[in-house]
Specification:
Length: 520
Amino acid sequence: MMTSEGAAAAAESKGANVGNATNPSAKGAALSPLRLVVLAVLFTVAAALESQRLTALFSADVWWHLRAGLWMLQHHAVIRFGEFTQSAQNPWVASSWGYEVLLAILYRIAGLKAVCVALMLLKTALAAITFWVAYAARRNFWTAVVLSLVAQYVLVELQPIPIVLSMLLFAVELYLLLSSRRGGDVRFLYALPPLFLIWANLHPLFVYGLLLLVLFVAAQALEKLYPSANPAAGSHAQETFLKLCAASGASLFATLLNPFSIHVYEDLYATLFSRVQFNALADMAAMEFRRPENFVLMLLVMAAFLALGLRRSRDVFSLSALALFVMISFRIRRDAWTVVLLSIAVLAECIFVSGKQEEAEAPGRFSAPSLAGVCGLSVLLLAAAIFHLPSNAVLTQRLATAFPVKACDYIRANALPAPVFNSFSWGGFMEWYLPEYPVVIDGRLNLYGEEASENYFKLVGGALRLEDSPAFTGAQTILIERKSGLAKALTELPALSGQFHVVYQDDLASVIVRNPARGQ
């Protein structure tokens, strides 16, 4: 049995270890040249590949985000209505207004390159934060590198849209919570309210962060009431629970400090329980496991649960968070990033290293010269990738392979009559490239309402008659995919071909004008 002196010495030793892990003044370790280069490459390889692939240009949603941001810069106000659409009178909750303004500022500096640069920066940030979340757990360098690579592979199809900011901030929150839980240091919790203040002005999925925080508070409460639920964390839960509750309350309040206040929650509720969005949008559908990264994701999740099981873990927070976000991720494949981040955090925590290996690893923070070296080399590699981006003229040519650039040019040059009926996937692009022609629909389905959105998809799918759609019967110009069923119907069916005629056509798009002689 340990004596009182021995217990005091052990407690002092434990406190010193905790202090060394969390004290900002604690001495960091220098990275070897090999590790420095590996980190810099890890952080920038996805951005370098993006500079060659240019996938950012093919995002259907980035364009209406960009147009909204440009409008806000021009008017020095937050956009609140459906500008650039035929539903301009409808109110709109621009819950990502902060990102849209930042993207518009970058666009004014770099032109069309801004879209590619934005995605490159976001991919670099994701690589860095996934590495740090994994590294902070056990300070195992190579494990963290591998887990970050896996996360980047699974999340390979990123777009330059605000949801990536939710990924980054969710990872930051996860790091703060787990760091506080491991070391019992409440200082990590003080960063939560400002984190949620920023998050609530960038993307509405800060509610996932709140959900994670609720699970964390519930787990701490359980461990406070029943210390045997997780003996390793029980003492920490006793000491930090009240401060955790205070930080959580302040975080909830911080989410209301945005231009739309409580209406952000209402808009998100409408999105998550929208029948038409789940039916019409591929990203809102359940995961189909048809791509390699989907199976890697499944293996990653299975490995996380297996690791907890092998440890006979009674960590209520990790188990409940994994279980809940697995259900969310497999139901809405757009949100698979939540369980990816949780899985790498759990795996990093559960992977044990030997005592000698652990001593050889760097402490919780790198030395200032090492950090400077990693940041400097990463910036150089990222700058080189950005420098090799094609010119804006070449980017416009690449853009024309996915969006109706030439068709829009024809509409503008010939001053075709408005209003226009457009393809859903082109609505956002037209708002940016052809703003003088308000669109009938774009990616903001909440703006139009359930009935109008559902009628649109029924019409283009052939389940609704043309004369039963006010959006179509009032249109004078139709811009749709050349190979779409609607384009074929308007130009080939005898009952309709006399009412419309094609004025422009290329491999991608058809521009069809209503015949004034026949009218409607």
